TrEMBL record:
EC number: 7.6.2.-
Protein name listed in UniProt: Lipoprotein-releasing system ATP-binding protein LolD
Keywords (A to Z) from UniProt: ATP-binding, Cell inner membrane, Cell membrane, Lipoprotein, Membrane, Nucleotide-binding, Translocase, Transport
Any one GO molecular-function label of the UniProt entry: ATP binding
SMART domains xrefs: AAA
CDD domains: ABC_MJ0796_LolCDE_FtsE (cd03255)
Cytoplasm in keyword set: no
């Protein structure tokens, strides 16, 4: 992760590294039309994007621009109206829901904008969940989850349920859950939205460590300028397309 970025082709759509062999996650000609409202809205139109192993990308853009929609499509949580998403050589459209779920569990971590923790389980159990689904032993899963919760500053909250945690604490549990299985790529939707500067910086540091130790790739949707600038590239989502333009410095 570093702070350099290209503002040279301001305004042009990003067509980054498509087809590169080191690519972890690629989407091509991705469009999404929501047709359930009073009128059909095309939120994404012909988005092309690719992220390499060990690369980190920030996606910024105004509210309603389609950032969460894009992240959901990249994570295989929703299917596009047109175009395709390929994760580690697997096209989501070729997989049934079960195989998509397995691939996601093995290779992706996801931090939702509204964390989605399981309310009836403790912080520790929420973080253990991806490892149990991934068939790790219970004691190993428990050790790894506890370690990561300690790393995000929650060693004193292992047995609290989400309703017994603050908003920022829930967000940190969700971050630990996304990272615990050491996925190839982590998709984060506003991961530091509820955090103070110091806590946000500790999350940023954790991401950097995983990035350098394990080559984890990060796609981070954020309004947090400092977090955005920490990533290798900053892309701007507007008018249904990703641009290289840096909106933070015009
Ligand atoms: N399920 C849906 N059905 C219909 N329209 C939707 C649906 N989900 C989102 N939208 C619309 O699509 C647009 C993009 O929504 P999205 O949640 O992707 O925005 P966002 O960039 O993540 O915004 P924010 O920064 O506020 O989180 C919005 O105008 C929203 O109203
Ligand atoms: Mg959103």
């Amino acid at each position: 992760m570093k702070t350099s970025q290209s503002a040279s082709d301001k305004g042009s759509q990003a067509q980054d590294n498509s087809g590169s062999s080191a690519s972890v996650l690629t989407c091509s000609h991705l469009s999404k039309v929501y047709s359930n409202g009073p009128q059909a809205i095309e939120v994404l139109s012909d988005v092309n994007f690719s992220i390499d192993k060990g690369e980190s990308v920030a996606i910024v853009g105004s509210s309603g621009a389609g950032k969460s929609t894009l992240l959901n499509l990249l994570g295989g949580l929703d299917l596009p109206s047109r175009g395709e998403v390929v994760l580690l050589g697997n096209n989501f459209a070729d997989l049934n829901e079960k195989s998509r779920g397995l691939l996601r569990n093995r290779s992706l971590g996801f931090v939702y904008q509204f964390h989605h923790l399981l309310p009836e389980f403790t912080a520790l159990e929420n973080v253990i969940m991806p490892l149990i689904i991934g068939k790790h032993s219970k004691s190993e899963a428990s050790d790894r989850a506890a370690q990561l919760l300690k790393r995000v500053g929650l060693s004193e909250r292992l047995n609290h349920k989400p309703s017994e945690l603050s908003g920022g604490e829930r967000q940190r549990v969700a971050i630990a859950r996304a990272l615990v299985a050491q996925p190839a790529c982590v998709l984060m939707d506003e991961p530091t939205g509820n955090l103070d500067r110091k806590t946000a910086e500790s999350i940023q540091k954790l991401m950097e460590e995983l990035n350098s130790e394990l080559g984890t790739s990060f796609i981070v949707v954020t309004h947090d300028e400092s977090l955005a600038l920490e990533q290798d590239r900053v892309l701007y989502l507007a008018d249904g397309q990703l641009h290289h333009q840096d909106p933070l410095h015009h």
